[in-house]
Amino acid sequence: MNNRNVRVAVVQSASTLFEKQSALDKIESMTREAAGQGAQLIVFPEVFLPGYPRGLSFGVRVGSRTPDGRKDWQRYWENSIKVPGAETDFLGGLAKELNVYLIIGIVERDQEFSTGTLYNSIIYIGPDGTLLGKHRKLVPTGSERLLWGQGDGSTLTVIDTPFGRIGGLICWENYMPLARTAMYAQGIDIYIAPTADARDTWQATIRHIACEGRCYVLSCNQFSTKETYPADLAYYDDIQDDDYVLNRGGSAIVDPLGEYIVNPLYDKEGIMFATLDLDEVIRSRFDFDVVGHYSRPDVFQLIVNDKKQEIVSKMN
Fold first, then answer.
1. N or C of the chain: less Cβ packing under 10 Å?
2. How many domains does the chain have?
3. Is residue 220 annotated as a catalytic residue, yes or no?
């Protein structure tokens, strides 16, 4: 295998919601399983650590919140992680031991200002154990805005590796054409698309991105059931008895011409494997390079503000 090939693993699973240690344990066990089958790059779903609270209301109605809902949210906050922090140190040690790249969806706790805000983030960890970067979701979708703050352009992260450039956007950020263009313009070869969207239309999205960006797309979703939710949540009864399967999955791996390498996986937990030949990315751009010969900068230009936004700055 040359250094332009890489064996990847996409993990479709879920941990016990709001239980950080459960997520860390599952990340460790499934990373070991994937690495044992030769994976060099391993991807986990959107906010896998400590979970996507599908179906929970947190007691929110327009114009009002409840004390019990605030307690559920506090529990989510308590199981979020700092970046960097003890959990990223643990994951770095795991990546180094197994000599793998780890890409994991997390709930990140702000540690710069009030510490009260959470972010839906991706972290990238290298095989030397280094935290290589992170991305914060630019716009939480719908009622997600009650849980997570907005990221800024400073975390539109793309990472250089020996086999190509990796980066990605989270779930419905991938419906933002300008955000996709900002990623393509950084020469992305392997596009990571963690999601909580199990609809059939999501498959059209990831195939379009692969064909548009002429890149591999690794789409990673959770398979979660009502059993993964602690029964002592204040708003546990938001989940109806017929809502046993809360997220059916649909993780998939797509090649740079938009064809499935691994078809979508539904209704069960699993790890999907593929060996990616990065020379296919080069060949695919022969007739279409969206930010190269197929761009028209005389007609269209994109301005990206990649500066970190500071709420407070000090004068020298």
1. C
2. 1
3. no
